[in-house]
């Protein structure tokens, strides 16, 4: 049965207690990873330094220094302090290892996220969003104005049509009244003419009778 001593793990600290286990399972794998990262880091630095100059030497050196510092935050070189602390048992290296390794995420954030380029992109995005909103509001206002104009025109056309209908009805009523008046006058004139004819005939008959 495996015991605590054969595993090399346990005890008061929740960590490996056997030095050989620390060497083979912690120190050597981390060292290999750091060496590979260091080689790639140096190769990137060499390639950047060999690039042709695009501006002044001072500005280029300053820019290259910023690039190198930013790249160093993702190489895992802070684990050097941890390995040195395990080998020497000096508390200073343990403090530096804890400080830099714990703040690595913050360093990456300030190196690659919080910078002028990201801030300019955020400002452009917010400006474009506000411009789109204002353009959309102006378009909606224009459409609402055109809708109001069309509604007003339709209302005016309806009112004009109703006014024309009412005017036409009034004209028709006036014409009908005049027609009735003319018909009534013609009837009265016919009756008067017939009355005059009958009166003339009676007078003529009376005068003829007297003559006889």
Automatic annotation (TrEMBL):
TM spans (from-to): 22-46, 67-87, 93-114
Regions of compositional bias (Low complexity) in chain numbering: 198-212
Spans annotated as Disordered: 133-212
Compositionally skewed regions (Polar residues) per UniProt: 133-142
Keywords linked to the UniProt accession: Membrane, Transmembrane, Transmembrane helix
Gene3D superfamilies per UniProt: Rhodopsin 7-helix transmembrane proteins
GO cellular component: membrane
One Pfam family named in its UniProt record: 7tm_2
Name of the protein this chain belongs to: G-protein coupled receptors family 2 profile 2 domain-containing protein
Organism: Dreissena polymorpha (Zebra mussel)
């Amino acid at each position: 049965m495996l015991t605590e001593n054969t595993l090399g793990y346990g005890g008061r600290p929740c960590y490996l207690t056997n030095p050989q286990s620390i060497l083979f399972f912690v120190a050597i794998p981390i060292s290999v990873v750091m060496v590979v990262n260091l080689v790639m880091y140096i190769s990137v630095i060499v390639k950047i330094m060999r690039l042709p100059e695009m501006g002044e030497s001072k500005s280029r050196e300053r820019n290259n220094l910023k690039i190198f510092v930013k790249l160093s935050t993702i190489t895992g070189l802070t684990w050097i302090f941890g390995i040195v602390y395990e080998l020497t048992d000096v508390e200073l290296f343990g403090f530096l290892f804890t400080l830099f390794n714990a703040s690595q995420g913050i360093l990456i954030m300030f190196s690659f996220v919080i910078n002028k380029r990201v801030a300019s992109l955020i400002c452009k995005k917010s400006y474009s969003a506000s411009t789109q909103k204002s353009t959309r509001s102006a378009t909606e206002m224009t459409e609402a104005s055109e809708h109001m104009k069309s509604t007003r025109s339709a209302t005016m056309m309806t009112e004009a049509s109703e006014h024309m209908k009412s005017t036409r009805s009034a004209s028709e009523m006036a014409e009908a009244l005049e027609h009735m008046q003319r018909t009534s006058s013609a009837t009265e004139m016919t009756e008067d003419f017939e009355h005059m004819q009958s009166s003339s005939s009676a007078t003529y008959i009376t005068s003829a009778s007297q003559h006889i």
